[in-house]
Amino acid sequence: MNVKSETCFSNHDGKPLSFFASEKEALDSAKYAKKRYGHSLLPYQCDKCNLWHLSPKSRHTQSEECSYCTDKNGALKQLYVSKNKAQKRADILYKEKAVLLDVYSCPHQNGFHLTKR
Question: How far apart are CA 52 and CA 94, in angstroms?
Fold first, then answer.
């Protein structure tokens, strides 16, 4: 079943995201989308709602919330597992929103953050 979130929206088009109660449910939906439509999707657990969403494989950049670093609004920054993953996210955001971002190493944890130029 395709249930839409009331709290989580696509960064790409602003539409509500589908959500799943478990990783298995999200994986099953991703497998169905691949078989039926040829779409390569990956499940991820959302930091906002703690449920599972799907991301196009080409847009997926593994990250988690940093335990220490915050943005200018006080929200925890995303911590990317590698410099390449952080740069991939920066490139996606530049392409979609024309926002230039730099990658830098987190001073507190093993990972990387993005910052505006």
Answer: 26
**89 near 61, Cβ under 8 Å?**
yes
Question: How many domains does the chain divide into?
Answer: 2
Q: Is residue 12 located within the same domain as residue 49?
A: yes
Whole-number Å distance between alpha carbons of 80 and 72: 18
Instruction: Report pLDDT digits (tens) over 19-62.
Output: 999 999 999 999 999 999 999 999 998 878 999 999 999 888 88
Exposure letters 92-109 (e unless 16+ CB within 10 A, then b):
beeeeeeeebebeebeee
Domain limit, last residue, from 58, 76, 93: 58
What lies within 8 Å, CB to CB, of 17 at 6+ separation is 4, 5, 8, 9, 10, 46, 53, 54
Please say which residue of 27, 43, 58 terminates a domain.
58
